[in-house]
Amino acid sequence: MTDEMKAKREKLFSSAKNGYDLVDQAALDAMEAYCETYKQYLDNGKTERECAAYTVELAQAQGYVPLSAGHEPEARRQGVPREPGQERDAGQDRPPGPVPRRADRGLPH
To answer: Do 93 and 77 touch, CB atoms closer than 8 A?
Structure first.
């Protein structure tokens, strides 16, 4: 095969390329760091109970605090009961006025 034919062949036919060849070194380093962290996570949590405990430990190290009984979040969705015995008003989180029909919203019958 001549050099001209080889050049045409390279240009016309696709060849499988490895994804690592297409990524820059900074992205490769970031992927490696992520994989190492994930491997550490898997090593520290061999069972579901260990994974849950380790996840709580990691979250608290990042500043998350556990939600305790009696703790009231600052923002709540409308229409969600605050107390276990309180009824939910389903219409509370809906805008006032009639509900538009399907045809009015541009939907098929």
So the answer is: yes
Q: What are the tokens at 97?
A: 């006025």
pLDDT of residue 27: 92
Burial annotation 60-99 (CB, 10 A radius, 16+ → b, else e): eeeeeeeeeeeeeeeeeeeeeeeeeeeeeeeeeeeeeeee
Q: State the pLDDT at residue 85.
A: 59
pTM of the model: 0.44
Task: Determine the Cα–Cα distance for residues 71 and 91; give it in Å rounded to an integer.
Answer: 26
Distance of CA 71 to the CA centre of its chain: 26
